Amino acid sequence: MITLCQFAPVPGWEVNASPFCLKVETYLRCAGLPFRAEATLPMKAPKGKLPFIIDEDGRRIPDSGQIVAHLEATRGALLDGGLSQEQRARGHLIRRTCEESLYFVLLYSRWFDEDGWRLVKPAYFHDLPAPLRLILPDLIRRRLRRDALGQGLLRHSRDEIYALGCADLDALAAALGDRAFFVADRPSSADVCAYAFLANILKAPLRNPLRDRAKSHERLASFVSHIDQHLKQMQE
């Protein structure tokens, strides 16, 4: 059985708080691949980030994109088989919008927007022993601040940052249109990725402009519901 090594669940959150962990978890469920989830820490991962999987043969595969590619290659293109070149290109653009743009605004909403940080800090670190609970959150936050400055995100104002994220959501809603899924008439790996990010915006117990914009698009909320329903049917 595949072992999915990811962040531990956050109490009170409907989904895994990491969109990349949720992406792999949702892929495995949509593909019907048996797995067990194991809470772990990033320093135990091959590349220092979560998630990673331990495949049935013992191989440790890091990075959500590489995990999906590995499973598609070794299990018979479970979600992306039969997609046209145009559909694959569309999926690539959807993934890049989520992972290389929307992600950073989601990161900001939790770690740097003070309203979000007040809720996220105790939720993420509640189970740490007292000394670490006092020290580790701010250490991680300082490292993320350095990375976000280098990436360019924190060189913008709060309003400008949320405007970037809202533009991504507007584009995703337009790309989805009246379809149930982004790429085909069934979930693809790109849909799984979009779901992981949108569910983390719509289902997390945080209130911010990003969530407000996502909720304003009925198409995006319906898409998340379609994936939820598909997952429920897979379990039955």
- Provide the CATH architecture: Up-down Bundle
Q: How many structural domains can be distinguished in the coordinates?
A: 1
End-to-end C-alpha gap: 20 Å
DSSP summary, beta strand count: 4
Order of H and E elements: EHEEEHHHHHHHH
Question: Could you tell me the strand content as a percent range?
Answer: 5-15%
Task: Give your account of this protein's structure.
With 236 residues, this protein is of the alpha+beta class. It has a single domain, classed as Glutathione S-transferase Yfyf (Class Pi), Chain A, domain 2, CATH 1.20.1050.130. The protein has helices at residues 19-31, 64-75, 85-111, 114-125, 130-151, 158-176, 189-202, 209-216, 218-235, and strands at residues 2-6, 35-39, 52-54, 60-62. The protein has a four-stranded mixed β-sheet with strand order 2-1-3-4, with helices on one face. The protein is globular and about 50 Å long. The relative contact order is 0.15. The mean pLDDT is 96.
Give a topology summary:
Blueprint: E1 2-6, H1 19-31, E2 35-39, E3 52-54, E4 60-62, H2 64-75, H3 85-111, H4 114-125, H5 130-151, H6 158-176, H7 189-202, H8 209-216, H9 218-235
Parallel strand pairs: 1-2
Antiparallel strand pairs: 1-3, 3-4
Helix pairs in contact: 1-7, 3-6, 3-7, 6-8, 7-9
